[in-house]
Design a protein that fits this description.
By secondary structure, the protein is of the alpha/beta class. The protein contains 13 helices and 10 strands. It folds into 3 domains: 103 residues, no CATH class; 43 residues, no CATH class; 177 residues, Rossmann fold.
């Protein structure tokens, strides 16, 4: 049996005419976000009051209208002239509907795919009726703030730290009825963070590692992984090399509430006064998930360690220069913390250890 190498990333998946027009998809997303941001900005400049709260009846109406409108555009005979430049007729569909397929390639094909998908159109249409208000510390790196603005969210900068932003978000939610999606204020983020643990298990052949070193701010990643490992074990999907992985938290010495609580044997963290670290993701003085984090560290027989900013910055640069990984300072903290754990005897030469980089270095370069 012989194999032939190819540089085509779609080889074996679909013939050339059906390859997804990824650049066109990206163009669509960019245009959509820009249009929504422009609409909100225009409404504000005109002095028009934007709704602060959307009631249950309005949500139902938006959902019904979005479905009907998307079905009308994507399937009905009366709107065939709208689709005609981008689609080709295959035959009759349901009552007063047509079956069509996208025409051409590139942007033309992408438009055709969107026009023929009522579910896609429904999501885009309903998404236009939603807006987000995001609070961020004024000390957040400018590149990160620029990225937030690009996606169309209303951004409000506050003096203080992320805990102050969380308080502002809760107050806004209480006053307007908006949904507070701050860390651990809703259940979905933890379930999403479980994918960290699921991918580790899958990529290691369903045999869990001995230890995990994780840079910790709000701690959702650490909590989610520990939950995933327990659930996988209970379901019989994985094998551990003796026991479940030992979980290790790494923080900066400029903001280390988890390390302080772990060393003191406390069940909860005491808010860290005057938190500061160059790693913005670790600048969380009073994490809401402190009890869950501390429980995971102790149940897994792991631990916690703090490193100074000089070490984590140097470790991030080492990952960039020697490994080709554009690590954020948070990733540098994990590597520096792993080295300290080795020196302490907590990590052993034969251990299989996962060290996490949780951010991108370019976000810190203005």
């Amino acid at each position: 049996m012989t194999t032939t190498e190819t540089s085509d990333p779609y080889a074996g998946y679909a013939p050339a005419p059906e390859r997804p027009p990824l650049a066109a998809y990206a163009t669509f997303a960019a245009v959509f976000h820009a249009a929504m941001a422009g609409a909100v900005a225009g409404a504000k400049r005109s002095g028009r009051d934007l709704p602060e709260r959307v009631g249950a009846g309005d949500i139902a109406l938006i959902g019904t209208a979005s479905y009907k409108l998307s079905r009308l555009i994507s399937k009905k005979k009366v709107t065939a002239f709208v689709r005609a430049p981008f689609t080709e007729l295959e035959g009759k569909g349901g009552p007063a509907e047509l079956d069509e397929h996208p025409r051409g390639s590139g942007l033309r094909r992408a438009v055709g795919e969107l026009l023929l998908c009522p579910y896609c159109l429904g999501l885009w249409a309903s998404g236009a009726f939603h807006a987000g208000l995001l609070y961020a510390p004024r000390t957040t790196p400018e590149t990160i703030l620029a990225q937030i603005r690009v996606f169309g969210a209303e951004l409000e900068l506050l003096d203080g730290h992320i805990g102050d932003c969380g308080k502002a978000a809760r107050q806004h939610a209480a006053e307007t009825g908006a949904m507070d999606v701050s860390t651990l204020r809703e259940p979905y983020r933890i379930e999403g963070k479980k994918t960290l643990g699921l991918e580790i298990a899958e990529q290691l052949g369903w045999v869990l590692p001995d230890a995990i070193v994780y840079p910790t701010g709000g701690g959702t990643g650490l909590i989610g992984m520990w939950k995933a490992f327990q659930e996988l074990t209970e379901a019989g999907w994985v094998r551990a090399r003796g026991s479940l992985p030992r979980m290790y938290s790494v923080q900066s010495t400029g903001c280390a509430p988890v390390i302080q609580a772990f060393d003191a044997g406390a069940e909860r963290c005491t808010p860290w006064p005057d938190p500061w670290t160059v790693a913005a993701g670790l600048r969380v003085p009073g994490p809401l998930g402190d009890r869950l984090m501390l429980r995971a560290l102790r149940e897994s027989q792991g631990g916690a360690v703090a490193v100074p900013d000089e070490e984590l910055v140097a470790a991030a640069r080492e990952l960039q220069a020697r490994c080709g990984i554009d690590a954020a300072p948070e990733g540098g903290a994990a590597l520096a913390g792993a080295r300290r754990l080795v020196a302490m005897g907590a990590l052993h030469p034969r251990d299989r250890v996962i060290v996490f980089n949780t951010g991108a270095g370019w976000l810190y370069r203005s």
